[in-house]
Amino acid sequence: MFNISQANIGSLPGLELQIILDNILLFFFCSIRISAFLIASPIFGARYVILPVRILFGMVLTLTVFQDQSNTLNVATIASATGVILLIKEAAIGLSAGLVLTIWFSAAAIAGEKMASTSGLAFAAQLDPNTGSSSPVLSQILMLFLLVIFLSIDGHLIVLRTLLDSYEFIPITSLPTLDIILKSGIGAAGSMFLAATIIMLPISIALLMINVSIGIITRSTPTLNIFSFAFPVTLLGVFILLYFSVSTIGFAMSDLVESSINYMQDMIWGIKNG
After folding, report:
1. Are 217 and 132 in contact (CB under 8 A)?
2. How confident is the model over 200-240, as pLDDT tens digits?
């Protein structure tokens, strides 16, 4: 029987196991920021994108930055307390970049839910494959509309390019202050509600006027059944309003996509300057 010790394995010709293990560890460390972003971002982190696809996509993206970043890293740094701090920093940058986009994109879902509740379409709900929870169909339609606009203007390529470029001015070995992340999260939440209000306000005001008109009609005609009259009128009104508001909503969502991308870029640039 052969007894091959670890020392003998390391001395075998052509078999540099330690170098291979070191490179695997460095590759994993370089992929933390990218993997965190893919988990938290609105499209790449959706439930319909299966985990093996995300892992493979993250590995391909990591290969583009591994050569440059691995030259500044070493296993001793990763295995020390500094390595733990760097790991947390990398995960924070990736998660915050993805969550900022997700928060901004939630404006479409909020606008759809408010319009559905105002028009009586809140009952028309189904399972959202993106979140795994039940949401109004109108909300899902607006969310898909937003994602189509995001892809049509190459927003996915812009955010990925921004993330990969962040390795140049925020190297893995750097330790910048992360105060800007908290400020960006709070600012993104406020901007989300503002964007949702801009999208839903015209239709909500028109529906309010329709409901007021229905109330006046039913008040003057007490024998009229409000449930058999008001709901079809409101439903027809919201469909007509959505039909004539498609271009306006499209411009509003295009501005939302551009603002979300700019906000993400400003946050990463702020981390560098911070």
Report:
1. no
2. 888 888 888 888 887 788 777 777 676 677 777 887 888 88
- The per-residue pLDDT for 159 is 92
Residue 227 per-residue DSSP state: H
pTM confidence score: 0.81
Query: What does the domain layout of the chain look like in residue ranges?
Result: 15-273
Distances (CA, A) of 141 to 46, 126, 136: 16, 12, 9
Tokens of 22: 């070191």
Do the Cβ atoms of 202 and 248 come closer than 8 Å? yes
**Tens of pLDDT, residues 74-103:** 777 777 788 888 888 889 999 999 999 999
Q: Which residues contact 187 (CB under 8 A, 6 or more apart)?
A: 263
Residue type, 1: M
- Please determine, for residue 125, whether its predicted confidence score (pLDDT) is greater than 70: no
d(CA 101, CA 32): 18
CA distance 138 to 238: 11
Q: 132 in helix, strand or coil?
A: coil
Q: What is d(CA 89, CA 102) in angstroms, rounded to the nearest whole number?
A: 20
Distance of CA 50 to the CA centre of its chain: 16
CA dist 248 and 105 (Å) reads: 17
